[in-house]
Amino acid sequence: MALVVQKYGGSSVGDAERIKRVAERIVATRKAGNDVVVVVSAMGDTTDELLDLANQVSPLPPGRELDMLLTSGERISMALLAMAIHNLGYEARSYTGSQAGVITTSVHGKARIIDVTPGRLKTALDEGAIAIVAGFQGVSQDTKDITTLGRGGSDTTAVALAAALHADVCEIYTDVDGVFSADPRIVPDAKKLDTITYEEMLEMAATGAKVLMLRCVEYARRFNMPIHVRSSYTNKPGTMVSGSMEDLPVEQALITGVAHDRSEAKITIVGAPDEPGTSAAIFRAVADAEMNIDMIVQNNSTEGTGRTDISFTLPKEDGAAAMAALQRVQEKVGFKGLLFDDHIGKVSLVGAGMRSHPGVTAIFCEALASAGVNIEIISTSEIRISVVCRDTDLDAAVRAIHDAFELGGDEEAVVYAGTGR
Amino acid sequence: MALVVQKYGGSSVGDAERIKRVAERIVATRKAGNDVVVVVSAMGDTTDELLDLANQVSPLPPGRELDMLLTSGERISMALLAMAIHNLGYEARSYTGSQAGVITTSVHGKARIIDVTPGRLKTALDEGAIAIVAGFQGVSQDTKDITTLGRGGSDTTAVALAAALHADVCEIYTDVDGVFSADPRIVPDAKKLDTITYEEMLEMAATGAKVLMLRCVEYARRFNMPIHVRSSYTNKPGTMVSGSMEDLPVEQALITGVAHDRSEAKITIVGAPDEPGTSAAIFRAVADAEMNIDMIVQNNSTEGTGRTDISFTLPKEDGAAAMAALQRVQEKVGFKGLLFDDHIGKVSLVGAGMRSHPGVTAIFCEALASAGVNIEIISTSEIRISVVCRDTDLDAAVRAIHDAFELGGDEEAVVYAGTGR
Questions:
Q1: Which domains does chain A have, with CATH numbers?
Q2: Does B1 touch chain A (CB under 8 A)?
């Protein structure tokens, strides 16, 4: 008998009908002889509706209370899902993050999981019940207050519970058939990947593939927990995320896929003194404002001026705060001006085979050139190349690279609407 | 410094605007130098909406999961209320029933409070915070599962917390100005009572006065906790429920008020054998179906037939099940038929002075006769007379009795819409 942890996102449990379908799938897994633990997100738009209520009451709600509010979303979906399973003749019990033993830091809104003590879940399984757990939430170790885990929190809950319970697999149900060689909405012949290593998945997630969040993949890699990403609308196998690059057979495909990202903006510091300490002062200012920066490029000093331009990318929503932080240090650092550009896109090529094939970068750049896409910033890792281009060129860039590396499959990918948290 | 426990019902926190008004009232109480603990119900229609969702998923949802679902209602309102208080510059922390130490039996949907261990509330108060507690819910002592307390649960939560914290007063905010000598919607000159004893309030609640639920008054009497029933729309003092009849001064008003009830139905067992054991068999059948019966009347045996009619009243919603239970024993008991009548009303007169004034019953019946109201069943306690009449006669009956005992005040009562749980 295997132990399967399943995670269903908000769109999978968006209304009563969908909840009943998910219940059928869970019961089918149970009937096949598995112990089942299910992690569930809040129904469809619940979280947005609750946030809207909070904003009506207070412009800056305290984190503790916002977490208390938002965690009611999963409470609703998990209780309804347990009811639907009961209705099919199987015992199911719902548990809040706190009851399931998800112990976190006390940073409200983006707590991190410290420990998982799933005693009540084990008891439920021993008694033959299916355990339904609220995703996205836990209880802080210090204050015993209810916390939420922030973006990707439900996926992380699922992986963390799977690791703590020594599950055989963690199935993440989503609205796509798995991880694709590119976004099927942009590249119609994008191919579903049957397997992908943790490292490749990390690079794909970090560069914009939305199917799995970075932290969830990091957690899975740390505990070596296989993740099966699959669709809640079909019974087809999805993509198995597991194993290390080191274990890949030599004949493994060179390239995994193309990821893209429209969520970033670019800030350019114009005319900064080309001397030691300038970059340090600039990035200290941004770091102190708690911004995460992504790619950085520093031009060669314009001859004779002793000055240079420095550009970096960061999430669009952090743009305003970063500009303000930089403006405050302008005089001290001595740069001439600041530019903000949120019409950029980023396209990345990921593949474990890349590191031993120096020709990849050349093919990559030639493909972009043929498609008439201008490269503004370029950065690479051992298994990834990323470039920044105009946002209007992004779709063409994704298609050109996908074609150049012959990543396409034979059939068109099916695309569903909606996404969960 | 006094400790005040306040309870706000669902209509008082029905939307963001009302939540902000309630927050202002709470802060005013805090500013006046009091420690404040607030018990809050779910917003307006939340509970009905959640029940509707449950019914879409399962025709007979398990009690444990229904309680898990419904308790999300208070979670939402309490977090929003805490945010609104923060926004006014005061520290507020919300607590679920479980976190507040409300320990209950494990009967889902109608759990009873066994114990209250408000350690976290005390800490919050000691640290200068206002504590907001979810009404209507607790955690079962045996299973550690979340429970709900059923009807009147939020009021009972407030009284129980007030008793456990040795509060000075428990204020129950509602949509009327207090307890009235009759329902102001029927009797325009009904008078707000300044004080009422626990015993009188119990009789009023038991006979249809909806402002306080029976179990909450029982709890308050047991712990001798004064309840101040008042309006959340004004600052006027309401009605203080406290003290025993035994302590009333001799010159205390004879009569407290008139209560009425439209929620009952009458079942008549026709042609039952007039012999020992008949009533026992009938009421055993009803009791085994877990019905609560209220008033009972048995006619004298019709001369020569050896048969009699027995009527009793019970909540309308239990009518169908009671009829079915009786039908199953018809052959064994040997009665001729069953009648069901849900067009009845019940009017009651309550007053601590009644027991020493035998003339009350006469005035009561004369008033009904003058108003042309026919009495179908009559029952009395030491401080109450109740009669069943046609439901169409009920308003006239209430007014006639209210007039006959000169219970009216000088000003018209203000009536607000809505009610909480």
A1: 3-174 (3.40.1160.10)
A2: no
